Each structure stands twice: as C-alpha cells, then as structure tokens.
Amino acid sequence: MNILETKNIVKKYEKHTALNGVSIAVPQQSIFGLLGPNGAGKTSLIRIITQITAADEGEVWFEGELLQPKHAQQIGYLPEERGLYKKMKVAEQLLYLAQLRDVPYQVAKDKLRVWFEKLDLMQWWNKNIEELSKGMQQKVQFIATVLHEPKLLILDEPFSGFDPVNSNIIRDEILALKEKGTTIIFSTHRMDNVEEMCDELVLINHAQKILGGKKNDVKRQFKSNLFTIETLKPLENLPENFALSKVTNTTDNTFLHQINLLQGTTNDILSFAIAQTSVIRFEEHLPSIHDIFVKVVEEGKK
Length: 302
Known about the structure:
This protein has 302 residues and is of the alpha/beta class. The chain has 2 domains: 2-220, P-loop containing nucleotide triphosphate hydrolases (Rossmann fold, 3-Layer(aba) Sandwich); 224-285, Alpha-Beta Plaits (2-Layer Sandwich), CATH 3.30.70. The protein is built from 9 helices and 14 strands. The chain has helices spanning 42-49, 90-100, 105-118, 134-146, 164-179, 191-197, 215-221, 266-274, 289-300; strands at residues 2-13, 16-27, 31-35, 57-62, 65-66, 75-78, 152-156, 183-187, 200-205, 208-214, 226-231, 242-249, 255-261, 279-285. Strand 9 and strand 10 (208-214) form a beta hairpin. Helix 2 (90-100) crosses helix 3 (105-118). The model has no long low-confidence stretch (mean pLDDT 92).
C-alpha cells in the first residue's frame, strides 16, 4: 500500500516550470529517495506535499484520500534550511512546537526526555539555542520534526552539519523509526546514504521524473553485464561470448577474472568455469546509485 501518491503534478513560477507532470508513489513503511540535481524540482514537490504551496495541476493523495489540511498533522518535515528561535531555550521551544502539533504538554515533555536521552542533549535542556553548536542545533531540529510521531517524515539533507559519529546516531534513529512504521522521504545529494538506506527512489531532472522504482531494480536497469569470478586456476580458452578484461592473482593464490558477458546467461559463465576448476566466488557488478545519478544527469545535458 502507498501512503503517498502524486499524480501529474505541475508547478510553474512565472516563466519557470518547476514540475512538469511528476507522479510518484511512496510505499508505506519505506525509505524513499527523492533525488535530483540542484534546481530539478525536488523542493517544489516537497512544498506541495507539505501544503506550503499548491500545485497548479495534478493531485496529491495521502492514505487513499486527496491531500487535505488535516493531513499536515501526520507529516513531519525537516527542511534543508533550518529554522529555530535562537533566543528561546531548547526544551521550551520544542514543547511549544509539539503543542502546535496538538501534542499535550505533559505527553510532549515525557517524549522530549526520551529523545534528549537518546541524542545526549539533557545538559542543554535549559540552554538557549544560540549557545548550541551547529550539530547540536541539528539534533534539536530533528527532534522537533519527529516528536509528534508523524506517519510520513520528509527529511531534506538530514545529515548536513553532522560529524561521522552523530551522522551514524541519526541514521540509526531514522532506521528505527522505519521499523516502528514510519515512512520516510529522504532528499539528499549523498548517494552513499541512498545506497545504504533507501528501499525505493525517484530521480527528478529538468522538472520531470526521469527514472524510479525499487533501488535494486534501478541498478539492474543500468547493469553492464560485468562479472567477477574467483577460481583456483586461471580460466583458459574463453568462448567468443565472454570478454575477459582482467585477471588478478590474489594473495591466497586464487585467480580473479573480470568478464563481460556479451551473449548468453550467467549460467554459461559458471558452467564454463566449473568444467575447468573450482569456483570460490561469483558476483555481478551492479552500478552504484552515484554512477547512475551522474550518468542520467549528464545525459540530460545533451
């Protein structure tokens, strides 16, 4: 089941078309990568989903209903440009924001203590926001986004400003939220995070959806039929439908072969190798999300 669907969304600003017929479907309890270069239309789409702006054409559906103001309480949004009241105390500000989301004061306070313990913020409870480092402020903003326990969480560059240790902490909390049932739309330029965390993705470029689907299906769509096979002996007399690009003798005295399969199936490679020697390892090389992103965006410039 999809928690969110956009259907043929069009958004124009004077003479600029930000979105031109963009349709996406976000499965429930998934991490959905929203990718694209700067200016592609990602932020415009997010603003429509969060009802900050409205589409000129098209529809947005949330849990099987046309998107309505009431759904705003079920959505959490962490924008790339953070916004906190720097003169307010940390806990005071988060309690205020939670109550705007209809979370009762005492309930919000209890939840806040849990999050402060998780993210090591208890000593900052009564400090002003301006006294916190950028990384600490990022943690506070993250808590503000998730405290009302939204069904859909939209994160725009959530790891910006974090050191590796705190990036891992936030990553683990995002994954934990997913396991508890939250759906996450994850907008980022960090393809390593997409590779590690996302179940599905969509790439927007020049205001249009260029590709999308399950992450592994997208990777297979761009596969180059390159394989690595590790054997006890080097392979000899390769048939014409194999192109051997590299052979490496490993420290374990085995042989790594990089083979391009020009015709046939993977079984052809395995059958050929097994007839000559023992096979230690066999794997297909799938392109990274980074490589696919660069390829598609560069092709879009032509």
